[in-house]
Amino acid sequence: MSVPKSELASFERAALGVVALMCLAETLSMTGFAAYPAFLALLRDTWGLSNSEAGFIGGAYFAGYMAAVPVLSSLTDRYDARRIHIGSCLLASVSNLGFALFADGVVSAAGFQALAGAGLGGTYMPGLKALTDRVTGPRQSRFIAFYTSTFGIGTSLSLLLSGWLERWIPWSWAFGLLAAGPLAAAAIVWFGLAPLEPAQLPGRRSTRLGNFSVLRDRSVRTYVLRYAAHCWELFGLRSWMVAFILFGYSATWSGNPMLSATEAAAAINFLGIPVSILGNEAAVRFGRGRYIPVTMAASGTLAWLTGFSSGWLWWVMLLLLAVYFIAIMSDSAALTAGLVATTPPDQRGAAMAVYSFGGFGAGFLAPLVFGLVLDVAGGKNATLAWGVAFGSLGIGCLIASVTARLKANSPRAGLRA
After folding, report:
1. Contact 327/302 with Cβ under 8 angstroms?
2. Average of per-residue pLDDT values in the chain
3. Per-residue pLDDT tens for 326-377?
4. 164 within some domain
5. 106-164: pLDDT as tens digits
6. Could you tell me the CA-to-CA distances from 240 to 34, 103, 224, 233, 269 in Å, in that order?
7. Is residue 340 part of a domain?
8. Residue 230 confidence (pLDDT) above 60
9. Would you tell me the crossing angle of helices 332-342 and 124-134 to the nearest 10 degrees?
10. What integer pLDDT is reported at residue 354 of this predicted model?
């Protein structure tokens, strides 16, 4: 039985409306996401922190995410993800206000960053679950790519707002004003997204909270490990990008830069939006099993080259940083869309929880390890130290790429084929 064209068009419009609403909400919920990386160099010097301590505060954000996401994302198999998203937006807003009012050192700053990360844990993947619960069909993979690309929009917006506010007001006021974004996101989802009935949630009775048994599925396990390598690189870079650009400017440029460090970082992060979407299209066309290892090999190699560019001409440094970021983001949406495609609908919430747990767990460790390497290799004023610290970001993707290549060439792979 064929469906009338008018009904198909109406369904498409409704689906696009849901996608647009969730993309907007996710972008606004992240206005405080890059506030600490934007102010990292300033707060490090103001509070007298070592690079390791500064990296620990940055990593605490992802530790909070890692602690919250197994529960919050798994809950979306039992309850409407809309409710989880709204509550988590409120948590993100409160944590940004707390940082503005009470953060004065390592312990307090890390605590509020962890709470902010928990807020993201209840918005990013639960937001995707809210989307996939309402939007199905052959274009779902593309819509997932649109949604995951908004992470880059949110990051760029957060960097831009932080940099602009830094010029006019103290950092604490900036953190306080950035808390308005998650409040706006909560209002958008509350008024714009219709709730689902309990019967419409396929895993309501079958899924346990924090269900790691989904890792028994080899495909899920592979995507989780690759996403962990991806996030190690991505969030380690995002945490230290502004500080790296500031160091490069001071080493090679005596005048006023055309772009501030936060503006340059925002522009580079913005490149990830089209790259992530196009990368998913390429992965669908050429096969994720072939495409993802190639992009990981490219990003892991570029990490070393980019890290040693801080002593070169400023525009060469920024160009390499942009190319490196493009390589990192080339498989971002492809990984998430691949996980959704390979997981049964009644287990997607649990799979997304484990997936995010592994990825953002790596995101917690990467900024800390970066700071430790920077301290051990010579400190914040040594080009060699920055080069080695950047190299540490690419190790996971290089290992994942080599492992995929070895598996593809193994006798067992030939027998399965």
Report:
1. yes
2. 84
3. 999 998 888 888 888 888 777 777 787 788 788 878 888 898 899 999 999 9
4. yes
5. 999 999 999 999 999 899 888 888 888 877 766 677 787 788 788 888 988 998 999 89
6. 10, 20, 24, 11, 13
7. yes
8. yes
9. 50
10. 83
- pLDDT reading at 270 higher than 70: yes
**Residue range 193-198: mean pLDDT, rounded:** 77
For the chain, first and last CA: distance in Å? 37
**Bigger pLDDT: 259 vs 294:** 294
How many other CB atoms are there within 10 angstroms of residue 243's CB atom? 26
Instruction: Give start and end residues of each alpha helix (H) in 308-378.
Output: 314-329, 332-342, 348-377
Q: 35-46 and 81-102 helices cross at what angle (nearest 10)?
A: 20
* Nearest alpha-carbon partner for 171 in 115, 117, 105, 100: 100
CA dihedral 282, 284, 290, 291 (to 10 degrees): 30
Q: What is the chain's alpha carbon radius of gyration, rounded to the nearest angstrom?
A: 21
The C-alpha atoms of residue 164 and residue 217 are separated, in whole angstroms, by 46
d(CA 238, CA 366): 10
Integer Cα distance of 390 and 370 in angstroms:
7
pTM of the model: 0.76
| Domain CATH for 155 | 1.20.1250.20
Residue 97 region by backbone torsions, left for phi larger than 0, else alpha for psi between -120 and 50, else beta:
alpha
Reduced to 3 DSSP states, what percent helix, strand and coil does the chain have, rounded to the nearest 5?
Answer: 80, 0, 20
Which residues lie below 8 Å from residue 299, measured CB to CB, with a gap of 6+? Answer: 233, 324, 327, 328, 330, 394, 397
412 part of a folded domain: no
Whole-angstrom distance, CA of residue 49 vs CA of residue 404: 40
pLDDT band at 222 (very low <50, low <70, confident <90, very high): confident
In whole angstroms, give the CA distance from residue 25 to residue 277: 19
pLDDT at 93: 96
Identify the domain containing residue 251 by its residue range: 11-406
Domain assignment present for residue 3? The answer is no
Give the residue among 34, 58, 56 at the shortest CA–CA distance from 263.
34
Angstrom distance (rounded) from CA 258 to CA 237: 22
Residue that has been written with the tokens 């970066």 in this structure: 370
Please give the tally of structural domains in the chain. Answer: 1
Reduce the DSSP state of residue 260 to 3 states and report it: coil
CA separation for the pair 249, 216 (Å, rounded): 48
The position carrying tokens 């990192």 is 328
